[in-house]
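Records of this kind hold a single protein each, on a pair of labelled lines. With that in mind, the following record should read easily:
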Amino acid sequence: MSLQNPNKKIGIYYDWLEADAFYYGWRFGYVPLPTFYQGHKNTTMVSPVFVGQSVIEIRNLDFVTNYGSEKASDRFYVDVWIFARIKFKIGSIKTRRYTMWIKCGLELPLVVNGASNGGFRATDCDVDF
């Protein structure tokens, strides 16, 4: 995932970062991410890897139906949330900390024995403070 800072004068301190993966509202993975400073006009790559650390309870027929149709299409829809505590640097001044939420809806290919029926599709994410 790429985090972009398009601003020409403001840097960003990422003091705390974590990524959570959800399947139809059920969190199945959590990954802490490294902290870093991102200068102005900069793009930084982060690579959360989710291993499915939690069991997802099947509570209704809609969940089973959605899972079955996604499995048949070889594409799964997962939401990834990135939570961050950030500070901005403007010249030599650092602001107070802010909490930032980034939500990305991903369409992921089903991988069987190391092969898939297509690649990952890039998506834009929503950012809130």
